[in-house]
Design brief:
The chain is of the alpha+beta class. The chain is built from 7 helices and 11 strands. The longest helix is centred in the first third of the chain and has 26 residues. The protein binds calcium ion. The site of calcium ion (CA) has 6 residues, from helix 5.
């Protein structure tokens, strides 16, 4: 298994509110994009990533993929509780984070997602977005009110319908995927998929050298303006 992780502040922001981790031993890969301002976003994404990792580490790996999905779901709920606790101790409102987590065993992936960071599958067939964005705009696309193209530039595209660290209902999307031979998974924050069209993401993510691919994706996002923090995590089983 190989992976490459690059997280960059971008061209305009002064701090990086994205957090990420790649644990090859566990086969666990996480990207989180925090929000809340005044360093709260940075703290939220870091707590969410660390808690998810710690929660998965604390439990022995189950034999069945189905049980692994249960563990990952529990880990995301643990992360949510930890961010809620931190926000309440700080007396901060609006502190939260997205969370995209992939648990990979050989070629079988269990994925948990909250918010609008994404997991893509890149294979010979092209690029497929595996996760669904928890945004108002994605709901409008799903219901046929908005086209995918119009969604890309919609003023409300960053309005999340779900985040880690909120007291409301948390229903992470859980899904399974098989990574074909030669395929890769790409986890990324919206600093990437907001700025680059999917055909460009695909061609850069397919560069043979996985480190070069990750750096090229971040460099291209920055070349396109780099308005946001950008995090890219490529995994190849
Ligand atoms: Ca972002």
């Amino acid at each position: 298994m190989r992976c490459a992780l690059v997280s960059d502040t971008g061209m305009e922001r002064t701090n990086n509110e994205d957090s990420a981790v790649a644990d090859l031993e566990l086969g666990l890969f996480i990207v989180a994009d925090g929000m809340g301002g005044h360093a709260a976003g940075e703290v939220a994404s870091r707590i969410a990533v660390d808690t998810t990792l710690a929660s998965m580490r604390a439990r022995s790996r189950p034999a069945r993929v189905r049980d692994e999905a249960e563990l990952l779901l529990q880990a995301v709920h643990d992360a949510n509780a930890a961010v809620v606790r931190e926000a309440s101790e700080r007396g901060t409102h609006g502190m939260g984070t997205t969370l995209s987590a992939v648990c990979l065993r050989k070629r079988a992936a269990v994925i948990a997602n909250v918010g609008d960071s994404r997991v893509y599958l890149i294979s010979r067939k092209g690029l497929a977005q595996l996760t669904v964005d928890h945004t108002l705009v994605a709901q409008m696309v799903e219901h046929g009110v908005l086209t995918r193209e119009a969604a890309r530039t919609h003023a409300d595209k960053h309005v999340l319908t779900m985040a880690v660290g909120t007291l409301g209902l948390l229903e992470p999307q859980i899904l399974y995927a098989k990574v074909p031979a030669g395929g890769r998974l790409l986890l990324c924050s919206d600093g990437l998929h907001d700025l680059l069209p999917e055909d460009e993401i695909e061609s850069l993510a397919k560069l043979p050298d996985i480190d070069e691919a990750a750096h090229a994706l971040v460099a291209r996002a920055n070349a396109r303006g780099g308005f946001d923090n950008v995090t890219v995590l490529l995994v190849e089983p």
